[in-house]
Every structure is written in structure tokens, then in C-alpha cells.
Amino acid sequence: MKGKIKNQKPEDKNRKSCLLLFAFCLFSCLGLCGCSGIYGYSNESLFPRDVNTVCLEMFDNRTFRRGLEYELSDALAKRIEADTPYKIVSSTSRADTVMNGQIVLITESALSLELELGGVLEREVEVRAVVNWKNLKTGELLIASQQVSASATYSTFQKQDFSYASNLAANNLARKIVELMEKKW
């Protein structure tokens, strides 16, 4: 076997090295092409680029429980500022887009009961809202009457109450609304 390796022609060595170089270049190009394009990875923002500012109007509350519209609007403004490239402005004349909505449902339900006395140990609060987001430059509805809901739990055993859970649910709802602002994949 050693004799065959020593007696190898220089043309065969050059041909093998050229094939190896070609294969390396081919796989390198294919590997780089797989990281871009329609089906690959991208570092582009998930939010529309033509938007810089959002005018966030106070959410309406169509339920009998008052005060949550303030919590939701405040949480949404903070979440937009923190998680998106957009800035909140107070006037529609200075804004690229306007966002508004309504809280349509606030429910409270029992999750667990105390065995001896039958009292409620843990409750869940669900908040449901309808959201609209309109591009003022083009008139396009970026979010058109999209229904979003979020929930949170509380336990009186842990000295928590409805306002604690509703505030937490409003923050969860604000996070979901910001996720709706992202472009579709």
C-alpha cells in the first residue's frame, strides 16, 4: 500500500486538492446562503419601519368596573416605549399612527376552594379588549378591531386582592397588544 501512495502522479494530487477546494467553497457558499433570504434568519426589526410615533388614546371601558382603563393605557404606553422603537406623543397632529381601544369584558372566577369551609382560596381575573391601530399617513389599519385578552390570579390567603390581579392582567394585556404591533412572519 505504501508503494501506491509514493507512486501517485502529481496530476492526481493537483486534481484532488482542486476538488477539495471546490467542495469547500461550494459548502461555504451554500451555508452563507442559508442564513439569508425569505426563509432564513434576519436581524431586521419586527415592527413596521415607516412608523416613528404613536398617539395612544385613553382606552374606553364598557364594563361596570371602573379604573382599569387608566391602568391599561399607562401600562401600554410604558410597554410601547420600552419594547418598540416608537415614541409616544400626545397629539395626533405630531403622530404617525394612532392607537385606541375598548375594554369589553372584565370577569372574575374562582379557581380553588377551601375544603373545610368552602371559601375561595384563589381567583382569576380576565380582561378582554378590542384594539385598533391606524397609520395616519396612509389611512391603513395596522390592527383592525383585534380582540385581545389576558388574565392574572390572586389569592386572599396571600393578602392579594382584585386590584392586584386586575393591574397584573392589564400589564399582561399591554404585552400582548405590543406583540400584535409586530409584523407578521
Please describe the structure with a list of short key phrases separated by commas or semicolons:
alpha/beta, 185 residues, Rossmann fold, 6-stranded mixed sheet
Structure write-up:
Strands 1, 2, 3, 4, 5 and 6 form a 6-stranded mixed beta sheet that branches. It contains 4 helices and 6 strands. It folds into 2 domains: 2-33; 53-180, Rossmann fold (3-Layer(aba) Sandwich). With 185 residues, it is of the alpha/beta class.
Q: How is this structure best summarized?
A:
The chain is of the alpha/beta class and 185 residues long. 35% of the residues lie in helices and 31% in strands.
Compute the number of strand runs: 6
Catalogue the unreliable spans. none
CATH topology of the largest domain: Rossmann fold
Number of domains: 2
Rg computed from alpha carbons, rounded to a whole number of angstroms? 29 Å
- Highest CATH level, the class of the largest domain: Alpha Beta
* Shape designation: flat
H-E string: HHEEHEEEEH
What's the structural blueprint in terms of helices and strands?
Layout: H1 2-6, H2 10-33, E1 53-56, E2 60-61, H3 68-83, E3 87-89, E4 97-113, E5 120-135, E6 141-155, H4 162-180
Parallel strand pairs: 1-3, 1-4, 2-4
Antiparallel strand pairs: 4-5, 5-6
